[in-house]
Amino acid sequence: MANATRLLIKNGTLIDGSGCDPVSNRLLVVEGNRISLAGETNGSMGPDTPDDTVIDAAGKFILPGLIDAHCHISLHQGALLGMKYTSTAEFCTLWAAHAIGRVLRAGVTSIAVPGGKWFTDVTVREAVEGGLLEGPRMVVAGRALSNTAASLIPIRIRLLKAFRPIRPASYAIRATSSFARPADNASGELI
């Protein structure tokens, strides 16, 4: 990597994530996608070259990339104004590709996706690894697994109670506390 462009981040306050206090006036040298040096700005590193990209981080903080250990990039449920067919696999993939760039720009450099729609997350991970999209490192599970409509069971029960068939007038009505309800047997239990 002798002729590779380096990124030099100078004069920033480094928070290394180890729990130590922040350290001022630091230098980070990034070669490729790896940090090759973290030290003092006036340390042992050779001089800048014309190929180097230099960022003056004076008055700013330098942090390691954040990790989101539970991130669903393909579970967009909302409708966009003027858009039809937002629940298709194709739209979901476009949405996830858009979202993954926002995740990276927020400082998250690694994510774990425990499941999503279709194989959108796998497709987006492949696009990031292939250089088609900019995004964090991704560990993905693929399609989400779930029991059938388990989250809808409480809703189904409420709906069944709300839309119970109307009983014929021949059913007895008896008073219980302050309201009346149909009695289907001697104990007054509801069906």
Please explain how this structure is put together:
This protein has 191 residues and is an alpha/beta fold. Helices cover 19% and strands 27% of the residues. The protein contains three helices and ten strands, in the order ββββββαβαβαββ. The strands form three sheets. Strands 1, 2, 3, 4 and 5 form a five-stranded mixed β-sheet that branches. Strands 6-7-8 form a three-stranded parallel β-sheet. Strands 9-10 form a two-stranded antiparallel sheet. Helix 1 crosses helix 2.
Structural class: alpha/beta
Number of strand segments: 10
Give the low-pLDDT segments.
170-182
Helix content: 10-25%
Q: How would you sum up this structure in a few lines?
A:
With 191 residues, this protein is of the alpha/beta class. The chain has helices at residues 89-105, 120-129, 153-162, and strands spanning 6-14, 23-31, 34-40, 53-56, 61-62, 66-68, 108-113, 137-140, 173-176, 179-182. Helix 1 packs across helix 2 (120-129).
Topology:
Elements: E1 6-14, E2 23-31, E3 34-40, E4 53-56, E5 61-62, E6 66-68, H1 89-105, E7 108-113, H2 120-129, E8 137-140, H3 153-162, E9 173-176, E10 179-182
Parallel strand pairs: 1-4, 1-5, 6-7, 7-8
Antiparallel strand pairs: 1-2, 2-3, 9-10
List its salient traits.
alpha/beta, 191 residues, 5-stranded mixed β-sheet, elongated, 3 helices, 3-stranded parallel β-sheet
